[in-house]
Amino acid sequence: MASPTLSRNIIIVSLTSLLTDVSTEMVYPLLPFFLVTQLGARPATLGLIEGFAESLASLLRVFSGYWSDRLRRRKPLAILGYAASTAGKLALFLAQSWLWVLGGRLADRFGKGVRTAPRDALIAESVAPELRGRGFGFHRAMDTLGATIGVGLAYLLFTRTHGNYRWLFLASLIPAALGVMVLTGVRDVRRSEPPKPPEPLRPLRAWRSLPRRLKLFLLIVFFFTLGNSSNQFLLLRARSLGFSEATVILLYLLYNLVYAAAAYPAGRLSDRVGRRGLLVAGYAAYGLTYLGFAVTPGPGPVWGLFAFYALYMGLTEGVEKALVVDLAPRELWGTMLGLHATLVGIGLLPASLLAGALWDLIGPAAPFYFGGALGLLAALGMWLIAGTPTAPAAK
User: Fold this and answer.
1) Is the residue at 389 inside a domain?
2) By Cβ atoms counted within 10 A, which residue in 109, 215, 351, 388 is the most buried?
3) How far apart are the first and last CA of the chain?
4) Are 334 and 68 in contact (CB under 8 A)?
5) How far is CA 386 from the centre of its chain?
6) For residue 192, is it within any domain?
7) CATH number at residue 289
8) Domain count within the chain
9) What integer is the mean pLDDT of 38-48?
10) How sure is the predictor about 15, in pLDDT bands with cuts at 50, 70 and 90?
11) Is the pTM higher than 0.85?
12) What would the mean pLDDT of 69-98 be, rounded to a whole number?
């Protein structure tokens, strides 16, 4: 039975995510500059790395969610995923070419692909239905608080070591390992029926059997993702507008502060007023932000654009997952959360490759015009989905 308040499981999972994001965000804002200035890569190479790392690893998400549904166990897959991401950081420390970075990012995203759906299903099982948005919002807030701490540490270490990337990458292993240790304290939520023997996953049959509104929602998410390239292009854009590497880290710190502040209130609000309106507002904020990055004549507006982009993340990240659980059959929560994450990840490959190509062939503003247009179209599509439920009873 789910607890009427945020449970011990949600606290542990959220703390694990906090520690893991401390590690990840110590690395993430500096990775594009490490590739370009230290390893001689181009923006198109960055798009290749980020697109493949996110998309290929994302194929695992629906399968890991499916297996956790069939076996009724979330914890082992979650621990495996967090451990794999920890190992991926070591490749960045050892990197001698962009291929090493690709390997490290693949290992890191492999871990995310394995853990995401089982972890999110565990959250859904550990909170009462009427608090579902709050549970996902709290997890996103803690996750993003960890990202904020990580970016702050990145700035301190980067400036104190006079731009020593490798020591910073090595230091990022410490919070990642602590996160895996904390997760061992989580408990699978037991259900009365015994585990079902795994059966082959039949995507076409499963897709046809889904509720119509869930299918429409997933299609809109996938369409939106085609214009949602890696966040590292935002960091490169800021640098192209005159920001130093250290100042770009501070921009990313602002982004995480606003994101952390918005995620939990957005989740709670979605429990009261529904998910659809918040998602429409979030997609619209994304589209306007990307258009702002395209047209800005200089560095002045960039601080506000990063804050507005963070608002989009706070309004959508946890709320999307809560809506998937609202619309999906109870026995398919892990599978559907995995499918949602897989669609987002698959879309990142063409989105990032296209963003890199547009940047190289046309100019830095081009990928942001494209992403802004798709964001506004996705907001319109989400608005046309009528009658989204707020917090249904458990299925």
Assistant:
1) no
2) 351
3) 12
4) yes
5) 26
6) no
7) 1.20.1250.20
8) 1
9) 74
10) very high
11) no
12) 85
